[in-house]
Amino acid sequence: MSAAPWSEHLLVETHGPWAGPGCAAFLRDAAALVHAGRRTLVLLVQDGVLAALPHGPGALDELMDAGGAVWVDRYSWVHRGLSTVDPAAGVTWVGMDEVAGRVLDPAVQVVWH
Amino acid sequence: MPMEIPRTDVLITLMGAPHADDLITTTLRLIEAMLTRGGRVQVWACGYATLLTQRALGDSKPRNPGDWSTDYPSTAAVVEALLDAYPDRLFWYGCRFCSDDRGAVDHLPRVRLRPPAGYAANVSAAAKTMLLGVI
Q1: What ipTM is given for this predicted complex?
Q2: Which chain B residues have a beta carbon less than 8 Å from that of A100?
Q3: Which of A10, B36, B57, B99 has its CA 20 to 30 A from that of B92?
């Protein structure tokens, strides 16, 4: 069997922690990929940005502690009236241009939740 | 003769309903950003996402009583503007079954309706496939 063409994972979370357990489970999936030695980036967008609120789901801390990178879509954050709130430490603000760059990279596999 | 599907960097399979959340806004932002970067993109609209490109939507959304003078473009107008701006790098397909099932029978001229069985050819023509939303 040939090796997968991608060497990096982009996991996109759109639902957020108040929509049910799916968000935390998805973040734990990302952490599992990191623990397996895979380069893994999580993008929080739409209601998914709510996972980056201070004292959000522990799964986000576990992911970042493991070495996973977390991007937060600034547009979604501001759109939800959170412009005066600082997100959890360690996350990175991004716009859609940065996301497009990762999506177009042939080495990046994208999973949308 | 089978329709030729131009090769693209990404196929976005868009299945979310237009007004269930802000998926469509996110998707259109991502499409525009990829095109701005020089990417080649195809969209396969499925389920209620086939409603996005109906000509009956016109150019504008209904007026906003809270902001009467602002023109809000319809999704059809936004998609058409993207197709006008990137005619050789953006391709928009609709699932014929889902479209007919919802009575969405009059689409923008450049939206190509495809049978569900043709989806595999679109996947084959893309270097990467993404599935956004659920039917």
Answers
A1: 0.93
A2: 30, 33-34, 36-37, 39
A3: A10
Q: Are B59 and B65 in contact (CB under 8 A)?
A: no
Could you tell me the CATH number of the domain that includes residue B27? 3.40.1260.10
Say yes or no for a CB contact (<8 Å) between B30 and A99. Answer: yes
**Domain tally for chain A?**
1
* pLDDT tens sequence across A46-100: 999 999 998 888 899 999 999 999 999 999 999 999 999 999 999 999 999 999 9
Distance between CA atoms of A21 and A25, rounded to whole angstroms?
6
Helix intervals (H) in chain A: 22-35, 58-66, 74-79, 96-104
Residues of A in contact with B32 (CB under 8 A): 96
Test B131 with A112 for CB contact under 8 angstroms: yes
pTM over 0.90: yes
B20 lies within 8 A of chain A by CB: no
Does the pLDDT of residue A1 top 70, yes or no?
Answer: no
User: Is it the case that residue B15 has pLDDT exceeding 60?
Assistant: yes
B20 CB-near residues (< 8 Å, 6+ apart): B133
The CA distance from A52 to the nearest CA of chain B, in Å, is 18
